[in-house]
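User: Hey, my collaborator sent me this sequence without any context and asked if I could get a structure. I don't really work with proteins. Can you help?
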Amino acid sequence: MDAQQFLADFGHIANAPGGIGKLRKLILELAIRGELLTTPDSATDARNLLAEISSVRAELVHAGKLRRPTPQPDIEASELSFTLPTNWAFERLGNVCEIVRGVTFPSSKKQTSRASGAVACLRTSNVQAEVDWDDLIFVDEEFVGREDQWVQKGDTMISMANSYELVGKVALVREVKERATFGGFIAAVRPHVLEPDYLYLVLRSPYMQARMRGTASQTTNIANISLGGMRPIPTPIPPKEEQSRIVAKVDELMALCDKLDVQQQERRKLQNNLRQSALQAVASAISPHELQNTWERLTDNFGRLFRVPEDVDELVAALKNMAVRGLLSLPSTSTSPVDEVVADCDNLRDQYIDSGLMRRQKLISVAESEVVYPKHWVIAPFDKVAVVIGGVTKGRDLRGRDVVTCPYLAVANVQRGFFKLDTLKTIQIEKKELSKYLVKEGDLLITEGGDWDKVGRTAIWQGGVEDCLHQNHVFKARVPSSALLNEWVELVFNSGVGRDYFAGASKQTTNLASINMKQLRSFPMPIPPLDEQQAVLPKLDALMKQSFVWREQLERKQRLASLLADATVAAFTGIAIEQEEESMKAPQTELIAPLRLGTTPDIKAQAPLATILARHNGEIGAKDLWQRFGGEIDAFYAQLKAEVAHGWILEPAPAEMREKPADTVST
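Assistant: No problem. I've predicted the 3D structure and written it out in structure-token form, which is a compact way to encode the shape of the chain:
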């Protein structure tokens, strides 16, 4: 693919999902391949620069300022994946810079505030797009064993141990805001003679990122890049005077990407506003004629208003709200069956009270509502049309009782309009309580609490699980009258009307919310004539199916756009854009026994925990080992698993490992 073809496809890349990020990677890749600028005829040869670097390194070794490097073999042609301009050269990374690993210290020795004799210490969290100098820890200066372990201007800090998607992340030290060292999970890449900005550019490139990750050892949730894996990587080196030109051009193009990113965000914001206004106009229509006009405007501009699959979700929500407000069906000549519904509900409630399934409750009034419904509909408190029953409480003392063990529905099992039954748990109840807490086909299950936008989730139980109960955080509602459809009630609760009510009525903490039975019983339930219920539900279902088709089309369009962008980049550079992997979670186990040394690792092996054990007669407590390791708890467990797998540390007995509560995992 030539440059002309690339320019023709530029828009496809930029507008694809994550397209700006792909353009940034493409710019970096072209820069390090010498394809971003035309090299002038007067340019020198990079081999002269390599000779200068070699001379400088030799002088530093002679002066005792640099340890004698381990000789590395010449680069073989088979190691190279692309060619360079004739006056460029490949050289191994370790021959053009120093890679200095950070200091190690016991976790107990790190401080979050300044103290006498302590110095600032950078961690992996400080390696962002720029070095973050605000969130620092402090350690005793005595842990800095070598002069090269002080942060220097021009260093590129690199995350050496992290999750796979973050390992290899780099940041250039443009200024040293205070005297600082750096921890053992990051390293400083310090160039000799090379322009620091150019080396930083190389280390960010897809080529170098892939090569570094390719050398990493990986455990369950942590990837570790070794110094021995980094040093041999063939690195593209341009003539010295070309490096600053390349950096300037990359900065210029990255600034253009920034502007393009801002333009896309502004366009997206405008598009969102237009779409929401169009949907609001449809939802606010008060006559069939107005509804037809606003709907036509929406559909005529569908392609402009709905660009990503998530946009269709707003349309689905609007359709549900319209259905609940009577805007998707023609007014019926029938009257609301509220009297029949209330009578049937009263009869069922009396039966439950007589049989001891529930106690007589105080009368409840309907909650206020500003929603406008058709005039021939009736609004009644939910308590008048359904019998609401609380669920079984966990943790009761049932010793000596005649009990039975049954599966039960918890909040996580009840979604909006469906159930997730792959994680059903069981609970013991007294046999005489089975009829009270049993869920029957047709029951409405309504969540009491959860995240603020998940309160009041409702689904109709379809059966399929024998003797299934419901927990006390899930309400059960039975609508006994055939004149009020369960599907209508489910739709109302899951619509914006229901969600707004529950969100407003719920008791909210920092990130959780809950409703009580009184608030559920007082919900203002709209009751249209039965024939309107029967007419609107299939109509809404048809519109929902069409919306899902549109969503699938947009998803397919996004996938094709992404594939086209990746193919364009690959055709132009020969590189493939990596797909992001999901973040891996920390292990949920906690060691409570001593750890013992197994097979002694080779001196070159990356076995810091086994090394510590060897220094302490081959045995040490897990907590003490972690503190001496000096890293984050997640990295400690990952490193421990790796060394156990190699046999360097003996496998702990099963009884010596226990489950760790989720809220105590360090992050």
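In plain terms: The first strand starts at residue 89 and ends at 92. You can pass these tokens on to your collaborator as they are.
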